Amino acid sequence: MTVHIDNMTRVFDSPNADRIVAVDELSLTIEDGEFLTLVGPSGCGKTTTLRCVAGLDTPTAGTIRVDDRDVTELPPQQRDVALLFQDIALYPHMSVRKNMEYGLKIAGVPEDERREHVAEAAALLQIGDQLDKMPASLSGGQQQRVALGRSLVRDPSVFLFDEPMSDLDAKLKRELRPVVQRITDEIGCPVLYVTHDQEEAMTMSDRIAIMDDGELQQAGSPKEVYSEPINDFVGEFIGQPAMEFFDAHVESANGTAAVSMGDHTVSLPATADELEGYVDSPVRVGVRPQQIGIGDPAEGIEAEHVLDEPLGDETHSIFETEFGDVTVVTHADFDGDGDTEYGLVLDESATQLFDPDSGVRIH
Amino acid sequence: MANETVESTATTDRRSVRGRLGLDGEALWGWATVAPVILLYLFVAVTPIAFAIYASLFEVPLLNPDWTFTGLSNYVEVLTMNSFWSSLWLGALFMVGSTVVQLLVGLWIALVLNQLDRGQRFLTAVAFTAYLVPTVIVVLVALFMFDVEVGVLHIAGSTLGLWGERTFALGDQTWAMSLVVLIGSWKFSIFVTIFTLAQLRAIPDRFYEAAKICGASRWEMFRDITLPRITGVLLIAVLLRAVFMFNKFDIIWMLTEGGPAGATTTLPILAYRTAFLHNDYGVANAMAVVMFVFLAIGAYCYFRAFDPTAEVDT
Predict the structure, then answer these.
(1) How far is the alpha carbon of A174 from chain B, nearest alpha carbon, in Å?
(2) CA angle A154, A158, A163 (to 5 degrees)
(3) How far B227 CA sits from the closest chain A CA (Å)?
(4) Which residues form the domain of A343?
(5) Do A56 and B215 touch (CB under 8 A)?
(6) Which one of A205, A237, A269 terminates a domain?
(7) CB-based contacts of A240, cutoff 8 Å, min separation 6
(8) Which has the closest alpha carbon to A337: A294, A290, A288, A299?
């Protein structure tokens, strides 16, 4: 199965405000067996997209096809999709077993066969001993496993996830991530996974699609969107801690480009061709906090230390500069001192340049 | 630290005073809070019931202050009375018929109101006014609508051939009971709606969305999600409606006075007739006590069979 989303638009009419364009001409293809994550800040249209694919919402324009079958107008009952909700949505009046076999029961599968499927799924999810309990007596993580099981037993042709881990704590998320990956691998159908958590997107996906304000920004493998973001939004959204940006000015470009950032100038390996039209113009310099070093004030951007967030293996240090607060990933032993003057040294080979108006990456 | 010591000695002192009563400060407050309710309950409920049981043991001519103790003979009279058993049967018919109609209509209205996207609040308020219309008004309007000369329902019925052109439907043996049930249900169905609607609104949309994804049809969603989620309140509503209708007096009396030829004489009507028309207050009280016992047994069996309280918690 392959899911094709073509030029899909979803507009909401609201009575007391202007029309809200939740999704704006989105085109995406999810290949068979591909794990595609739709990621973006809240309100970017990712959940609306997923609901349209599920059939719980209908696009205003555009089409959704599964293989060659146009499903745009079909109700969810006829789409053979599985959907895992953020708030889990287990039926509180049914036991875990009844919850898990519900889809099969609706499909008219005989009881002994249902039991077999449920037992299989429960073993895979390690909830075999919970089957006769009521959902309310399970922990959040176990409940989400049951919900996963409910989707899994039906052997769907498309698997959808709507921020299924947002309500779980960090440790449970890490436990559940490999479970989700194993199960989706096993089913081998196209997977559309919606989240606002870039870490989830990076760790689980074959491909990530980043959305902002209803529009698709970029779709690519995790490495691709991390190292070659198409614009400053993607650069900032993907990666932890977020990419730091500095307003700068391109002084000259011939072999290396001299870029001034306040009083400080860096020279980047870029040819005049690459920076055509930007010489003698403003740009934004983007650097990941991992690529910023600490030195003397004379060597880099003058900075004053604000605080350290030690993580054990590394430290996130926050400095105040003329460009605002800047986060730098420092050595685990780094211990900042408010009275010392520091200079932030950018790794020149790792810096990226963005158009200050459109945000598009130019180098 | 110092404070604690002082307080603990104070408590010990007070204990020595109240200790014999087994009361500490908290228990005393507890009793003081509960006492008014207990007194009120004694005064409003227990005393009249006790009085009725007491009076049922006497022969009490209504206008004569002299009561003659007759032991259980009133009960013997009640239980051997043909009209008692026929009234019990009619009362049960009225109770079951009314409860079933009210349950179905009330639930239906609730489901429809819950489906509305617009005007839900307004229409809910409109539907609820039926419950606020005084019974007298309901009866007057009903009598007018069944009037042989101008009544719209009379004409509709006689046109359909249900009853003759000159037949007063409420005075007709075959129709009286069903019509009393329907007229009562017009007013009281909304009681079930009030109960169910709040519970229906509390069912998250997610449950239905999850069911749709599983492929469930409308009927399957109703059967597997809606119904189980409202069973608890429905059981309570049915119990309350059944008890209320078994004891219903006003609407039946005003519509038919128990007629025609006793076709709508339920137990409350019979008890009233016995007390105030046959002047036999003692027997009427015995009848009321028997009704009370029957209802208590019925309610006990109902709770044993369904346990509505447990359902509401989930």
Answers:
(1) 25
(2) 95
(3) 10
(4) 244-354
(5) no
(6) A237
(7) A198, A199
(8) A294
Listed in sequence order, the DSSP H helices in A197-339 are 198-204, 222-227, 232-237
Shortest Cα–Cα distance, B205 to chain A (Å): 9
- Tokens 């950032």 belong to which residue? A261
Residues of chain A contacting B213 with CB distance shorter than 8 Å:
54, 56, 76, 81-83, 103
Q: Answer for the pair A190, A30: CB distance below 8 angstroms, yes or no.
A: yes
A214 φψ region: left (φ > 0), alpha (ψ -120 to 50), beta (else): left
Instruction: Give the residue from B178, B175, B174 showing the smallest Cα distance to B186.
Output: B178
Is B220 in the A-facing interface, judged by CB distances under 8 Å?
A: yes
**To which H or E segment does residue B55 belong?**
helix B47-55
Q: CB contact, 8 Å: B311 with chain A?
A: no
Cβ proximity of A81 and A159 under 8 Å: yes
Beta-strand relationship, A282-287 and A264-268: unpaired
Residues of B within 8 A of A103 (CB-CB) are 213-215
Residues 6+ apart with CB under 8 A from A21: A9, A10, A11, A214
Q: Does A154 touch chain B (CB under 8 A)?
A: yes
Continuous segment of H or E residues that includes residue A91? none
Residue among B204, B216, B228 whose CB faces A106 most closely:
B216
Residue of chain A minimizing CA distance to B212: A77
CA nearest to A73, candidates A81, A62, A89: A62
Number of domains composing chain A? 2
- CA of A114, closest CA in chain B: separation in Å? 14
For A42-70, the DSSP string reads TTSSHHHHHHHHHTSS--SEEEEEETTEE
A77/B204 Cβ within 8 A: no
Do A60 and A31 fall within a single domain?
yes
A20-30 and A35-39 beta bridge pairing: unpaired
Q: What's B80-313's CATH class?
A: mainly alpha
Q: Which residue has the higher pLDDT, A119 or B4?
A: A119
**What is the C-alpha to C-alpha distance for residues B230 and A195, in angstroms, rounded to an integer?**
34
Tens of each residue's pLDDT in chain B, 314 residues: 444 444 444 445 555 555 556 667 888 888 889 999 999 999 998 998 898 888 888 887 777 777 888 888 888 888 888 888 889 999 999 999 999 999 999 999 999 998 888 888 888 888 888 888 999 999 999 999 988 888 889 888 888 888 888 888 888 888 889 999 999 999 999 999 988 998 998 898 889 999 998 888 999 999 999 999 898 889 989 999 999 999 899 999 998 888 788 888 888 998 898 888 887 888 888 888 899 999 999 989 988 888 766 554 44
B215/A106 touch (CB, cutoff 8 Å), yes or no: yes
**Residue B270, CA distances (Å) to B53, B57, B91, B266, B273 in order:** 18, 19, 10, 6, 5
Assigned token pair, B194: 């009030």
Residue A199 lies in a domain: yes
Cα separation of B209 and B212, whole Å? 5
Residue A8's DSSP bridge partners are: A26
Of B210, B228, B314, the CB nearest to A85: B210
Q: Six-digit token pair at B216? A: 């469930």
Q: Tell whether A31 and A165 lie within a shared domain.
A: yes
Q: Does A58 touch chain B (CB under 8 A)?
A: no
CATH code of the domain containing A294: 2.40.50.140
Residue environment code for A104-141, b if the CB has 16+ CB neighbours within 10 A, otherwise e: bbbeebeeeebeebbeebbebbebeebbeebbeebeeb
A76 touching chain B per CB within 8 A:
yes
Are A195 and A23 spatial neighbours (Cβ–Cβ below 8 Å)? Answer: no
Instruction: Classify residue A362: in a domain, yes or no.
Output: no
Please check whether residue A98 touches B, CB under 8 A.
Answer: no
